[in-house]
């Protein structure tokens, strides 16, 4: 008999990424056995994207064999009980009210769970990636937007409203620029990739970091300013959930240590209650497929919860 496998799909505006993880009989955690990427064609709208997700899931199962569950990472908000989308800011079309979970569950005939993509990122990095040896892990994604999430003892801490850890909407400067959420001075408004490039007067974030490393003064100043905002947000994170590891991912991490080092310094400079060298800030390890891997792990976690409940006679 083959080991149990779990399918993960990560819905993005450009690509649908796929991962399959498989139980490893000799280890506590599963191993990644398959990854692939397909075009989303988001411009064709919600129904077409749903059909495409089902087709991608089916073709993956044809290739790797049967799976126990499917997980779907989504770039937005959804109702936890119904899986219906409430907000998809980056995909065109009438998404609010559209269900993805039930059509996929019917299409692939396995229990299906939906998870926000930032939480999927952390579930993957905290289980199999850069945070795997730590108990309390904070994940932050820095790019077009800024996302964050909290993992405690192997589980994502969602909070009462499913939004715990959303560091992008932590107010850093009450008189700061207007954020997409309607408030002023959120970390996202101050430190998203486009804020960095505007400050530096350069087209893309990776170039800003390259120029900063080469000694360009405007780029150095922009990197320092933005790292200061991110460091303020992460220092607040050190104070509140008290993570023993912060994993940093997202588009700007293409620049690697030259992006991470100023953030690490700025965070350490702002924390007094914890020794600076005890603050662990590391780059994500799983790359582009972290979201799909995390979605697969979310389905696996749900299956484990269901079997634990049925074995104790609970519904
Ligand atoms: Zn905001």
What is the CATH class designation of the largest domain?
Alpha Beta
Give the bound compounds: zinc ion
| Domains, number | 2
Average per-residue pLDDT, rounded, comes to 93
N-C termini distance = 29 Å
Give, in order, the helices and strands: EEEHEEEHEHEEEHHHHEHEH
CATH topology group of the largest domain? Nucleotidyltransferase, domain 5
Instruction: Just name the CATH architecture of the largest domain.
Output: 2-Layer Sandwich
Biggest sheet character: 5 strands, mixed
Strand content: 15-25%
Poorly predicted runs of 5 or more residues: none
| Proportion in helices | 25-40%
* Number of DSSP strand runs: 12
Give the class from helix and strand content and strand pairing.
alpha/beta
Strand order of the largest sheet: 3-2-1-4-7
Total DSSP helices? 9
Shape: globular
Could you describe the 3D structure shown?
With 315 residues, this protein is α/β, with parallel strands linked by helices. It folds into two domains: 5-117 and 288-311, 2-Layer Sandwich (Nucleotidyltransferase, domain 5); 130-285, 2-Layer Sandwich (Nucleotidyltransferase, domain 5), CATH 3.30.420. The chain has nine helices and twelve strands. It has helices at 46-64, 101-108, 117-127, 187-191, 193-200, 205-213, 217-239, 257-269, 290-311; strands spanning 5-11, 15-22, 31-39, 69-74, 77-78, 85-87, 112-116, 136-142, 146-152, 155-157, 245-249, 281-283. It has a five-stranded mixed β-sheet with strand order 3-2-1-4-7. A hairpin with an 8-residue loop joins strand 2 (15-22) and strand 3 (31-39). Helix 1 runs parallel beside helix 2 (101-108), helix 3 (117-127) packs across helix 9 and helix 5 (193-200) runs antiparallel to helix 7. The protein is globular, with a radius of gyration of 20 Å. The mean pLDDT is 93. It binds zinc ion. Residues 169, 179, 181, 183, 186, 188 line the site of zinc ion (ZN).
């Amino acid at each position: 008999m083959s080991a149990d496998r779990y399918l993960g799909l990560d819905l993005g505006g450009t690509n649908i990424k796929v991962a399959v993880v498989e139980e490893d009989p000799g280890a506590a955690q599963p191993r990644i056995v398959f990854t692939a990427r397909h075009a989303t064609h988001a411009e064709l709208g919600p129904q077409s994207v749903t059909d495409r997700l089902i087709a991608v899931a089916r073709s993956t199962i044809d290739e790797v064999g049967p799976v126990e569950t499917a997980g779907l990472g989504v770039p937005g908000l959804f109702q936890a009980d119904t899986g219906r989308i409430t907000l998809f800011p980056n995909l065109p079309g009438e998404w609010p009210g559209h269900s993805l979970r039930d059509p996929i569950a019917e299409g692939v005939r396995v229990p299906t769970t939906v998870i926000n993509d930032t939480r999927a990122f952390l579930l993957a990095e905290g289980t199999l990636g850069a945070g795997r040896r730590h108990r309390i892990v904070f994940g932050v994604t820095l790019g077009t937007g800024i996302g964050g999430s909290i993992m405690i003892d192997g589980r994502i801490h969602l909070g009462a409203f499913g939004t715990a850890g959303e560091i992008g909407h932590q107010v850093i400067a009450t008189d700061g620029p207007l954020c997409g959420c309607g408030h002023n001075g959120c970390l996202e408004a101050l430190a998203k990739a486009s804020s960095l490039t505007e400050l530096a007067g350069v087209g893309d974030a990776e170039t800003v970091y390259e120029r900063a490393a080469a000694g360009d003064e405007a780029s150095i100043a922009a990197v320092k300013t933005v790292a200061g905002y991110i460091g303020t947000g992460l220092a607040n994170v050190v104070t509140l959930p008290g993570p023993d590891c912060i994993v940093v991912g997202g588009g700007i991490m293409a620049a690697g240590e030259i992006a991470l080092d100023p953030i690490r310094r700025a965070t350490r400079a702002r924390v007094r209650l914890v020794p600076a060298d005890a603050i662990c800030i590391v780059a994500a390890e799983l790359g582009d497929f972290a979201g799909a891997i995390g979605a697969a792990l979310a389905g696996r976690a749900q299956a484990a919860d269901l079997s634990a409940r049925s074995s104790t006679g609970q519904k």
